[in-house]
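User: Please run a holo structure prediction.
Assistant: Happy to. Please share the sequence and the ligand.
User: Here you go; the ligand is pyridoxal-5'-phosphate.
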Amino acid sequence: MDHVETLECTLCGAEYDPDQVIYTCSEHPGVKGILEVRYDYDEVLDRFDESLDGDVRSQWKYRAFLPVADDVEPVTLGEGGTPILDAPRLGTELGVDLRVKDDGRNPTGVLKDRATAVSLTKAREFGIDVVTCASTGNAAASLAGFSARGGFDCRLFVPGDAPEGKLAQPLVYGADVLGVRGSYDEAYDLSMEVTERFGWYNRNAAVNPFQVEGKRTVGHELAEQTRGEVPDWLVFSMGDGCTIAGGWKGFREFHDLDLVEETPRMLGVQAEGASAIHDAFHGHDDADEVADTVADSISVGRPRNTVKACSTLEESGGESVLVSDEEILAAESLLGRTEGIYAEPAGAAPVAGLRKARDAGIVDEGESVVVVVTGNGLKDTKSGMRAGGEVERIDPAIGDVVERYDGGD
Ligand SMILES: Cc1ncc(COP(=O)(O)O)c(C=O)c1O
Ligand SMILES: N[C@@H](CCOP(=O)(O)O)C(=O)O
């Protein structure tokens, strides 16, 4: 990998060989010593011979930017290359010039597929065939799907009360799904213990340095797709904080390389019941470590990428807001009925956050905004039913329909 220089500890700057399996800095174990991939950009640009014409079929258009060896066949289901859609009806409702990047259209229905493809390609490169992760559900389903595709043995740690769709999906993909009686944070700790004991390859974005590299392709894509009309704001939801950090890393990288002229401000959205990054960004370090929100994917009590997420907000001149469960469900319904996009609660939270930011005067009327929908609603139909309302039951007779639409006969 001539284009990858090193893995660097974000805390002390210690450097590590990128051709080895390593999670965090040996001097700073745990999430304090997260390693960052450093590239030789002359080499990267030498390899990048694509034109930035807005035509993105998959994230592998940016292979030159990914930390994978040239001679390894990627494990892929065609992830990335998701559309940016104009959202005029929702934009009018929120008073902004709005576009939506629908990453729920990824192969397993979630933005995480970008990262999973990169980490399984690394597992293939390292010759490891058992993989694992802790997950609120999406990362697990994603890892299971790509494991099936690449022929890996997949062992997952997921809170047992995850939405059913997120448990059914990895089961159908043939993974071992271990439903942990506890929270995502507890499942995460267990998966780390297991990784140390059994040597399985761990996908957790918090510690696997290659994950955020995959997630950053959403930033590359956003930069390419909005070139010439870069939005004032880019909105993401935040759980552990890796996704927003990845989106920013990719966008800023293209800007630093003069591939795009401007950068957006980043708006991070958390749920009131899982607010640790927002609290840290606003100088409060007494956040409740017990997470509780309908948006299960961002129901994280101890986010592992708080530092990265806060630097993203700071560097981009951004902000963060909190939204209630009611606001998230209302946003899920609003997004669906105005633009025909069905998001899970964490995917709709940015819409709720944008409304909050408008009300708070953070985002001004008429500014241009791209909201990133990170996950598809079909995985969590229970929340969808709460957001969408009741099904009206009728008899299979014309009379009930006439009464409904004609006000009686
Ligand atoms: C649909 C969805 N949206 C948002 C997030 C938040 O991403 P992160 O935990 O990297 O902040 C996740 C998972 O983490 C997710 O599955
Ligand atoms: N909410 C996430 C948490 C783990 O995902 P990661 O990509 O940050 O490791 C999930 O979907 O499980």
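The pocket of pyridoxal-5'-phosphate (ligand 1) is lined by residues 110, 112, 138, 205, 237-243, 297-298, 344, 346-347, 374-375 (CB under 6 Å).
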